[in-house]
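Lab meeting minutes (informal)
Scribe: AK
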Amino acid sequence: MIKVYFDFLCPFCYLGRGFWLKMQEERPVEAEWVPWEIHPEYPPEGGPAKSDAKAEADLKRYRALGGELRHFEATHVSPNTRNALMGLEFARAAGRTDAYIERVFQAIFVEDKNVSSVEAVVELGSEVGLDGEALGRSLREGKYGEILAERDREAEGMGLEVVPSFVQDGNLVLAGSTTMNFEEFRSKYLAVWG
Protein backbone atom coordinates (compact mmCIF):
# COMPACT_ATOMS: atom_id res chain seq x y z
CA MET A 1 0.00 0.00 0.00
CA ILE A 2 1.33 3.39 -1.03
CA LYS A 3 0.31 6.58 0.73
CA VAL A 4 0.37 9.64 -1.50
CA TYR A 5 0.44 12.87 0.50
CA PHE A 6 -1.08 15.67 -1.57
CA ASP A 7 -3.05 18.89 -1.54
CA PHE A 8 -5.68 19.96 -4.06
CA LEU A 9 -3.95 23.33 -4.35
CA CYS A 10 -0.84 21.76 -5.90
CA PRO A 11 -0.75 21.55 -9.72
CA PHE A 12 1.97 18.92 -9.48
CA CYS A 13 -0.35 16.76 -7.38
CA TYR A 14 -2.94 17.05 -10.15
CA LEU A 15 -0.25 16.03 -12.64
CA GLY A 16 1.12 13.29 -10.40
CA ARG A 17 -2.32 11.80 -9.87
CA GLY A 18 -2.97 11.77 -13.61
CA PHE A 19 0.37 10.07 -14.20
CA TRP A 20 -0.31 7.60 -11.36
CA LEU A 21 -3.72 6.70 -12.76
CA LYS A 22 -2.21 6.10 -16.20
CA MET A 23 0.42 3.79 -14.69
CA GLN A 24 -2.31 1.75 -13.00
CA GLU A 25 -3.23 0.50 -16.49
CA GLU A 26 0.30 -0.85 -16.91
CA ARG A 27 1.41 -1.82 -13.41
CA PRO A 28 -1.30 -1.48 -10.72
CA VAL A 29 -0.19 -0.55 -7.21
CA GLU A 30 -2.70 0.07 -4.43
CA ALA A 31 -2.63 3.61 -3.06
CA GLU A 32 -4.33 5.80 -0.51
CA TRP A 33 -4.41 9.51 -1.34
CA VAL A 34 -3.72 11.33 1.93
CA PRO A 35 -4.74 14.98 2.42
CA TRP A 36 -1.96 17.29 3.55
CA GLU A 37 -2.79 20.99 3.79
CA ILE A 38 0.23 22.85 2.42
CA HIS A 39 -1.03 26.40 2.95
CA PRO A 40 -3.01 26.45 6.20
CA GLU A 41 -2.09 30.14 6.54
CA TYR A 42 -4.35 31.11 3.63
CA PRO A 43 -7.42 33.02 4.78
CA PRO A 44 -10.77 31.17 4.70
CA GLU A 45 -11.74 32.79 1.39
CA GLY A 46 -8.46 31.72 -0.28
CA GLY A 47 -4.97 33.00 -0.81
CA PRO A 48 -3.48 35.53 -3.20
CA ALA A 49 -4.85 35.56 -6.73
CA LYS A 50 -2.45 35.13 -9.65
CA SER A 51 -1.98 37.88 -12.19
CA ASP A 52 -2.91 37.14 -15.80
CA ALA A 53 0.79 37.00 -16.72
CA LYS A 54 1.58 34.51 -13.92
CA ALA A 55 -1.47 32.39 -14.77
CA GLU A 56 -0.43 32.25 -18.44
CA ALA A 57 3.18 31.38 -17.62
CA ASP A 58 2.05 28.62 -15.26
CA LEU A 59 -0.39 27.34 -17.87
CA LYS A 60 2.38 26.90 -20.46
CA ARG A 61 4.54 25.01 -17.98
CA TYR A 62 1.77 22.73 -16.75
CA ARG A 63 0.52 21.96 -20.25
CA ALA A 64 4.05 21.07 -21.35
CA LEU A 65 4.36 18.60 -18.46
CA GLY A 66 0.80 17.26 -18.57
CA GLY A 67 0.68 16.52 -22.27
CA GLU A 68 -2.47 14.66 -23.21
CA LEU A 69 -2.95 13.14 -19.76
CA ARG A 70 -3.89 16.25 -17.80
CA HIS A 71 -5.78 19.22 -19.16
CA PHE A 72 -5.09 22.66 -17.67
CA GLU A 73 -6.66 26.07 -18.12
CA ALA A 74 -5.27 29.32 -16.74
CA THR A 75 -5.95 29.49 -13.01
CA HIS A 76 -6.08 32.71 -11.01
CA VAL A 77 -7.55 31.35 -7.77
CA SER A 78 -5.45 30.08 -4.85
CA PRO A 79 -8.08 28.40 -2.70
CA ASN A 80 -7.86 27.57 0.96
CA THR A 81 -8.23 23.79 0.66
CA ARG A 82 -9.13 22.93 4.25
CA ASN A 83 -12.82 22.33 3.49
CA ALA A 84 -12.00 20.41 0.30
CA LEU A 85 -9.54 18.19 2.19
CA MET A 86 -12.05 17.52 4.97
CA GLY A 87 -14.57 16.79 2.22
CA LEU A 88 -12.20 14.14 0.94
CA GLU A 89 -12.43 12.31 4.26
CA PHE A 90 -16.23 12.50 4.03
CA ALA A 91 -16.04 11.13 0.47
CA ARG A 92 -13.72 8.33 1.62
CA ALA A 93 -16.22 7.29 4.27
CA ALA A 94 -18.93 7.25 1.57
CA GLY A 95 -16.84 5.22 -0.89
CA ARG A 96 -16.53 8.09 -3.41
CA THR A 97 -12.85 8.97 -2.96
CA ASP A 98 -11.67 8.80 -6.57
CA ALA A 99 -14.63 10.63 -8.06
CA TYR A 100 -14.37 13.35 -5.44
CA ILE A 101 -10.61 13.87 -5.89
CA GLU A 102 -10.97 14.15 -9.65
CA ARG A 103 -13.90 16.56 -9.40
CA VAL A 104 -12.10 18.92 -7.03
CA PHE A 105 -8.94 18.89 -9.15
CA GLN A 106 -10.99 19.65 -12.27
CA ALA A 107 -12.76 22.52 -10.52
CA ILE A 108 -9.42 24.11 -9.58
CA PHE A 109 -7.19 23.46 -12.59
CA VAL A 110 -9.67 23.39 -15.45
CA GLU A 111 -12.56 25.56 -14.27
CA ASP A 112 -10.57 28.08 -12.13
CA LYS A 113 -13.09 27.70 -9.28
CA ASN A 114 -12.49 28.80 -5.73
CA VAL A 115 -13.19 25.70 -3.65
CA SER A 116 -12.54 27.43 -0.31
CA SER A 117 -16.10 27.66 0.99
CA VAL A 118 -18.32 25.01 2.49
CA GLU A 119 -20.88 25.79 -0.22
CA ALA A 120 -18.38 25.19 -3.03
CA VAL A 121 -17.30 21.85 -1.57
CA VAL A 122 -20.91 20.78 -1.04
CA GLU A 123 -21.70 21.59 -4.66
CA LEU A 124 -18.77 19.54 -5.94
CA GLY A 125 -19.48 16.69 -3.55
CA SER A 126 -23.12 16.58 -4.58
CA GLU A 127 -22.04 16.33 -8.22
CA VAL A 128 -20.25 13.05 -7.46
CA GLY A 129 -23.11 11.55 -5.48
CA LEU A 130 -22.38 12.64 -1.92
CA ASP A 131 -25.15 13.67 0.44
CA GLY A 132 -24.73 17.44 0.23
CA GLU A 133 -26.63 18.20 3.42
CA ALA A 134 -24.58 15.72 5.47
CA LEU A 135 -21.34 16.89 3.84
CA GLY A 136 -22.12 20.53 4.65
CA ARG A 137 -22.96 19.66 8.24
CA SER A 138 -19.70 17.71 8.67
CA LEU A 139 -17.68 20.63 7.27
CA ARG A 140 -19.37 23.25 9.45
CA GLU A 141 -18.80 21.04 12.51
CA GLY A 142 -15.16 20.40 11.55
CA LYS A 143 -15.80 16.67 11.86
CA TYR A 144 -12.64 15.69 9.98
CA GLY A 145 -10.38 18.46 11.27
CA GLU A 146 -8.55 16.17 13.68
CA ILE A 147 -7.88 13.69 10.87
CA LEU A 148 -6.22 16.50 8.88
CA ALA A 149 -4.13 17.39 11.92
CA GLU A 150 -3.07 13.74 12.27
CA ARG A 151 -2.11 13.62 8.59
CA ASP A 152 -0.02 16.78 9.04
CA ARG A 153 1.78 15.21 12.01
CA GLU A 154 2.39 12.00 10.00
CA ALA A 155 3.91 13.90 7.09
CA GLU A 156 6.06 16.10 9.28
CA GLY A 157 7.13 13.11 11.38
CA MET A 158 8.45 11.41 8.23
CA GLY A 159 10.27 14.58 7.23
CA LEU A 160 8.21 15.07 4.07
CA GLU A 161 8.80 18.42 2.44
CA VAL A 162 6.90 18.44 -0.85
CA VAL A 163 3.68 17.24 -2.39
CA PRO A 164 3.01 14.87 -3.92
CA SER A 165 5.05 12.52 -1.75
CA PHE A 166 4.72 8.79 -2.42
CA VAL A 167 5.42 6.81 0.77
CA GLN A 168 5.79 3.05 1.14
CA ASP A 169 6.26 1.34 4.52
CA GLY A 170 6.89 4.73 6.12
CA ASN A 171 9.66 5.62 3.65
CA LEU A 172 9.59 8.29 0.97
CA VAL A 173 10.07 6.50 -2.37
CA LEU A 174 9.09 9.19 -4.88
CA ALA A 175 8.78 12.91 -4.22
CA GLY A 176 7.21 15.65 -6.24
CA SER A 177 6.69 15.87 -9.96
CA THR A 178 7.65 19.50 -10.43
CA THR A 179 9.77 18.88 -13.50
CA MET A 180 8.59 15.48 -14.69
CA ASN A 181 6.57 14.72 -17.76
CA PHE A 182 4.77 11.40 -18.00
CA GLU A 183 7.68 9.44 -19.48
CA GLU A 184 9.99 10.61 -16.69
CA PHE A 185 7.37 9.74 -14.08
CA ARG A 186 6.83 6.35 -15.73
CA SER A 187 10.54 5.59 -15.57
CA LYS A 188 10.71 6.43 -11.86
CA TYR A 189 7.50 4.55 -11.15
CA LEU A 190 8.80 1.39 -12.85
CA ALA A 191 12.15 1.71 -11.06
CA VAL A 192 10.29 1.58 -7.73
CA TRP A 193 7.30 -0.66 -8.49
CA GLY A 194 8.17 -2.27 -11.84
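Next up, CB showed the second protein from the same session:
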Amino acid sequence: MTTATAAPPAVLIAPRGRERITAAGLFRSEWRKLWTIRPLWMTVTAAFALTIGLCAYMIIDGTTLGGGDAGRIPFGWTGIYPVGMLVLVVFGVLSVSTEYASGSIRTSLTVAPRRTGVMLAKAAVVTGVSAVLAVVTTAVLYLLLQAVGTVPSAIGMSLFAPDMFWGALGGTLMLPYGALFGVLLGWLLRNAAGAICLYFGLFQMGPQILPAFLPEPLAAVTDYMPLAAVNILRSGGLSTEPYGAVTAGIILVAWLAVLGSLAWWRLKRFDG
Protein backbone atom coordinates (compact mmCIF):
# COMPACT_ATOMS: atom_id res chain seq x y z
CA MET A 1 0.00 0.00 0.00
CA THR A 2 1.47 3.31 -1.05
CA THR A 3 1.14 6.57 0.78
CA ALA A 4 -0.64 8.08 -2.18
CA THR A 5 -3.28 5.35 -2.18
CA ALA A 6 -4.04 5.75 1.50
CA ALA A 7 -3.96 9.55 1.57
CA PRO A 8 -6.80 11.07 3.59
CA PRO A 9 -9.53 12.93 1.68
CA ALA A 10 -9.20 16.63 1.04
CA VAL A 11 -11.91 17.38 3.58
CA LEU A 12 -9.39 16.64 6.32
CA ILE A 13 -6.38 18.48 4.99
CA ALA A 14 -7.70 22.01 4.85
CA PRO A 15 -5.52 24.40 6.86
CA ARG A 16 -6.44 24.43 10.50
CA GLY A 17 -8.14 27.61 11.57
CA ARG A 18 -9.95 27.97 8.24
CA GLU A 19 -12.25 25.01 8.61
CA ARG A 20 -13.74 23.45 11.69
CA ILE A 21 -13.44 19.67 11.71
CA THR A 22 -16.92 18.29 12.34
CA ALA A 23 -18.24 14.80 12.96
CA ALA A 24 -19.83 14.89 9.50
CA GLY A 25 -16.47 15.84 7.97
CA LEU A 26 -14.72 12.98 9.69
CA PHE A 27 -17.45 10.61 8.58
CA ARG A 28 -17.17 11.76 4.95
CA SER A 29 -13.42 11.35 5.11
CA GLU A 30 -13.66 7.77 6.36
CA TRP A 31 -16.31 7.02 3.73
CA ARG A 32 -13.97 8.19 0.97
CA LYS A 33 -11.09 6.17 2.36
CA LEU A 34 -13.21 3.04 2.29
CA TRP A 35 -13.93 3.30 -1.41
CA THR A 36 -10.60 4.74 -2.60
CA ILE A 37 -8.21 2.38 -0.80
CA ARG A 38 -8.26 -0.75 -2.93
CA PRO A 39 -7.60 -3.44 -0.29
CA LEU A 40 -10.55 -2.16 1.76
CA TRP A 41 -13.28 -2.33 -0.85
CA MET A 42 -11.84 -5.54 -2.28
CA THR A 43 -11.94 -7.19 1.16
CA VAL A 44 -15.49 -6.13 1.97
CA THR A 45 -16.60 -7.22 -1.50
CA ALA A 46 -14.92 -10.59 -1.03
CA ALA A 47 -16.59 -11.06 2.36
CA PHE A 48 -20.11 -10.66 1.04
CA ALA A 49 -19.48 -12.34 -2.30
CA LEU A 50 -18.15 -15.39 -0.45
CA THR A 51 -21.07 -15.40 1.99
CA ILE A 52 -23.71 -15.04 -0.70
CA GLY A 53 -22.02 -17.53 -3.03
CA LEU A 54 -21.60 -20.31 -0.47
CA CYS A 55 -25.03 -19.78 1.11
CA ALA A 56 -26.68 -19.73 -2.31
CA TYR A 57 -24.98 -23.00 -3.19
CA MET A 58 -26.25 -24.58 0.02
CA ILE A 59 -29.78 -23.34 -0.58
CA ILE A 60 -29.95 -24.37 -4.25
CA ASP A 61 -28.35 -27.74 -3.58
CA GLY A 62 -30.69 -28.31 -0.65
CA THR A 63 -27.85 -29.15 1.73
CA THR A 64 -27.34 -27.82 5.23
CA LEU A 65 -24.42 -27.78 7.59
CA GLY A 66 -24.76 -30.34 10.34
CA GLY A 67 -26.41 -33.17 8.42
CA GLY A 68 -30.04 -34.23 8.23
CA ASP A 69 -31.08 -32.78 11.58
CA ALA A 70 -30.03 -29.32 10.41
CA GLY A 71 -32.58 -29.59 7.58
CA ARG A 72 -35.29 -28.95 10.16
CA ILE A 73 -33.73 -25.58 10.99
CA PRO A 74 -35.19 -22.99 8.58
CA PHE A 75 -32.23 -20.62 8.99
CA GLY A 76 -29.62 -23.36 8.59
CA TRP A 77 -28.17 -21.60 5.54
CA THR A 78 -26.71 -18.94 7.86
CA GLY A 79 -24.17 -21.57 8.91
CA ILE A 80 -21.87 -20.00 6.31
CA TYR A 81 -22.01 -16.56 7.95
CA PRO A 82 -19.01 -17.22 10.25
CA VAL A 83 -16.87 -17.37 7.10
CA GLY A 84 -18.04 -13.89 6.16
CA MET A 85 -17.42 -12.70 9.70
CA LEU A 86 -13.84 -13.93 9.53
CA VAL A 87 -13.16 -11.95 6.34
CA LEU A 88 -14.84 -8.88 7.84
CA VAL A 89 -12.52 -9.04 10.85
CA VAL A 90 -9.65 -8.75 8.36
CA PHE A 91 -11.51 -5.88 6.66
CA GLY A 92 -11.83 -4.02 9.95
CA VAL A 93 -8.16 -4.53 10.78
CA LEU A 94 -7.05 -3.29 7.35
CA SER A 95 -9.20 -0.17 7.63
CA VAL A 96 -6.85 1.00 10.40
CA SER A 97 -3.55 -0.74 9.67
CA THR A 98 -3.27 0.54 6.09
CA GLU A 99 -3.13 4.11 7.37
CA TYR A 100 -0.46 3.29 9.93
CA ALA A 101 1.54 1.34 7.35
CA SER A 102 1.52 4.25 4.88
CA GLY A 103 1.98 6.95 7.50
CA SER A 104 -1.15 8.80 6.35
CA ILE A 105 -2.63 8.41 9.83
CA ARG A 106 -0.45 11.34 10.90
CA THR A 107 -2.47 13.71 8.72
CA SER A 108 -5.78 12.56 10.18
CA LEU A 109 -4.55 12.82 13.75
CA THR A 110 -2.95 16.22 13.17
CA VAL A 111 -6.15 17.70 11.73
CA ALA A 112 -8.34 16.03 14.39
CA PRO A 113 -6.18 16.39 17.51
CA ARG A 114 -8.79 14.97 19.87
CA ARG A 115 -8.29 11.59 18.19
CA THR A 116 -11.51 10.10 19.54
CA GLY A 117 -13.52 11.52 16.65
CA VAL A 118 -11.31 9.79 14.09
CA MET A 119 -11.65 6.49 15.90
CA LEU A 120 -15.43 6.76 16.19
CA ALA A 121 -15.88 7.88 12.58
CA LYS A 122 -13.91 4.95 11.24
CA ALA A 123 -15.81 2.49 13.45
CA ALA A 124 -19.14 4.00 12.37
CA VAL A 125 -18.37 3.81 8.64
CA VAL A 126 -16.92 0.30 8.69
CA THR A 127 -19.68 -1.08 10.92
CA GLY A 128 -22.44 0.81 9.13
CA VAL A 129 -21.42 -0.38 5.67
CA SER A 130 -21.07 -3.95 6.93
CA ALA A 131 -24.47 -3.81 8.63
CA VAL A 132 -26.28 -2.52 5.54
CA LEU A 133 -24.66 -5.12 3.31
CA ALA A 134 -25.41 -7.84 5.88
CA VAL A 135 -29.13 -6.96 5.90
CA VAL A 136 -29.23 -6.94 2.09
CA THR A 137 -27.40 -10.29 2.03
CA THR A 138 -29.90 -11.91 4.39
CA ALA A 139 -32.87 -10.50 2.45
CA VAL A 140 -31.50 -11.77 -0.87
CA LEU A 141 -30.74 -15.22 0.51
CA TYR A 142 -34.16 -15.47 2.15
CA LEU A 143 -35.84 -14.67 -1.16
CA LEU A 144 -33.69 -17.30 -2.87
CA LEU A 145 -34.63 -19.78 -0.14
CA GLN A 146 -38.33 -19.25 -0.81
CA ALA A 147 -37.88 -19.29 -4.58
CA VAL A 148 -36.13 -22.67 -4.79
CA GLY A 149 -37.99 -24.39 -1.94
CA THR A 150 -35.26 -26.91 -1.18
CA VAL A 151 -35.48 -26.59 2.62
CA PRO A 152 -38.88 -28.00 3.65
CA SER A 153 -38.88 -26.39 7.09
CA ALA A 154 -38.55 -22.93 5.53
CA ILE A 155 -41.13 -23.17 2.73
CA GLY A 156 -43.70 -20.41 3.06
CA MET A 157 -42.22 -19.20 6.36
CA SER A 158 -42.04 -15.44 6.78
CA LEU A 159 -38.65 -13.93 7.46
CA PHE A 160 -40.24 -12.40 10.56
CA ALA A 161 -41.64 -15.65 11.90
CA PRO A 162 -39.93 -16.38 15.24
CA ASP A 163 -38.49 -19.70 14.03
CA MET A 164 -36.76 -17.88 11.18
CA PHE A 165 -36.26 -14.35 12.44
CA TRP A 166 -34.10 -14.84 15.53
CA GLY A 167 -31.66 -17.17 13.84
CA ALA A 168 -31.42 -14.96 10.74
CA LEU A 169 -31.00 -11.87 12.93
CA GLY A 170 -28.23 -13.46 14.97
CA GLY A 171 -26.39 -14.48 11.81
CA THR A 172 -26.84 -11.04 10.27
CA LEU A 173 -25.54 -9.23 13.35
CA MET A 174 -22.37 -11.29 13.49
CA LEU A 175 -21.16 -9.76 10.21
CA PRO A 176 -20.95 -6.10 11.33
CA TYR A 177 -19.80 -7.33 14.74
CA GLY A 178 -16.80 -8.96 13.08
CA ALA A 179 -16.01 -5.76 11.19
CA LEU A 180 -16.17 -3.65 14.37
CA PHE A 181 -14.11 -6.22 16.29
CA GLY A 182 -11.46 -5.96 13.56
CA VAL A 183 -11.45 -2.16 13.70
CA LEU A 184 -10.78 -2.21 17.44
CA LEU A 185 -8.03 -4.81 17.04
CA GLY A 186 -6.53 -2.63 14.33
CA TRP A 187 -6.54 0.45 16.56
CA LEU A 188 -5.03 -1.56 19.39
CA LEU A 189 -2.16 -3.19 17.46
CA ARG A 190 -1.84 -0.90 14.36
CA ASN A 191 -0.25 -3.79 12.47
CA ALA A 192 -2.25 -6.01 10.12
CA ALA A 193 -0.16 -9.15 10.57
CA GLY A 194 -0.09 -8.82 14.35
CA ALA A 195 -3.82 -8.14 14.69
CA ILE A 196 -4.85 -10.94 12.32
CA CYS A 197 -2.51 -13.42 14.02
CA LEU A 198 -3.90 -12.43 17.42
CA TYR A 199 -7.44 -12.95 16.19
CA PHE A 200 -6.69 -16.34 14.66
CA GLY A 201 -4.52 -17.55 17.51
CA LEU A 202 -6.57 -16.35 20.46
CA PHE A 203 -10.14 -15.77 19.33
CA GLN A 204 -10.55 -18.15 16.39
CA MET A 205 -8.46 -21.13 17.45
CA GLY A 206 -8.29 -20.43 21.18
CA PRO A 207 -11.61 -22.11 22.10
CA GLN A 208 -10.34 -25.37 20.55
CA ILE A 209 -6.74 -25.20 21.78
CA LEU A 210 -6.83 -23.54 25.20
CA PRO A 211 -8.85 -26.22 27.05
CA ALA A 212 -6.02 -28.69 26.44
CA PHE A 213 -3.57 -26.44 28.29
CA LEU A 214 -5.74 -24.93 31.01
CA PRO A 215 -6.62 -26.61 34.31
CA GLU A 216 -10.13 -28.04 34.22
CA PRO A 217 -11.71 -25.32 36.40
CA LEU A 218 -10.33 -22.65 34.03
CA ALA A 219 -11.20 -24.41 30.77
CA ALA A 220 -14.74 -23.04 30.95
CA VAL A 221 -13.36 -19.55 30.29
CA THR A 222 -13.49 -20.35 26.58
CA ASP A 223 -17.30 -20.38 26.83
CA TYR A 224 -17.11 -16.64 27.34
CA MET A 225 -14.99 -15.83 24.31
CA PRO A 226 -16.63 -13.93 21.42
CA LEU A 227 -17.14 -16.83 19.02
CA ALA A 228 -18.83 -18.96 21.68
CA ALA A 229 -21.25 -16.12 22.44
CA VAL A 230 -21.81 -15.48 18.72
CA ASN A 231 -22.73 -19.12 18.14
CA ILE A 232 -25.34 -18.96 20.90
CA LEU A 233 -26.76 -15.70 19.59
CA ARG A 234 -27.10 -16.98 16.03
CA SER A 235 -28.70 -20.25 17.13
CA GLY A 236 -32.05 -18.50 17.39
CA GLY A 237 -32.74 -19.94 20.84
CA LEU A 238 -31.89 -23.53 19.89
CA SER A 239 -28.72 -23.41 21.97
CA THR A 240 -28.91 -22.22 25.57
CA GLU A 241 -25.83 -23.87 27.07
CA PRO A 242 -24.03 -22.65 29.10
CA TYR A 243 -26.11 -19.44 28.90
CA GLY A 244 -28.86 -17.84 26.85
CA ALA A 245 -29.02 -15.19 24.14
CA VAL A 246 -29.25 -12.25 26.56
CA THR A 247 -26.06 -13.26 28.34
CA ALA A 248 -24.40 -13.88 24.98
CA GLY A 249 -25.27 -10.35 23.89
CA ILE A 250 -23.84 -8.91 27.10
CA ILE A 251 -20.62 -10.87 26.61
CA LEU A 252 -20.23 -9.63 23.04
CA VAL A 253 -20.76 -6.01 24.08
CA ALA A 254 -18.33 -6.46 26.97
CA TRP A 255 -15.60 -7.66 24.58
CA LEU A 256 -16.14 -4.60 22.41
CA ALA A 257 -16.00 -2.37 25.47
CA VAL A 258 -12.70 -3.90 26.65
CA LEU A 259 -11.04 -3.74 23.24
CA GLY A 260 -12.42 -0.27 22.59
CA SER A 261 -11.17 1.05 25.92
CA LEU A 262 -7.67 -0.38 25.38
CA ALA A 263 -7.55 0.95 21.83
CA TRP A 264 -8.74 4.41 22.93
CA TRP A 265 -6.21 4.50 25.77
CA ARG A 266 -3.37 3.62 23.41
CA LEU A 267 -4.52 6.17 20.86
CA LYS A 268 -4.64 8.94 23.48
CA ARG A 269 -1.50 7.83 25.30
CA PHE A 270 0.86 7.22 22.39
CA ASP A 271 -0.63 9.35 19.60
CA GLY A 272 -1.66 12.26 21.80
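CB comment: The first helix runs from residue 23 to 36.
No objections, moving on.
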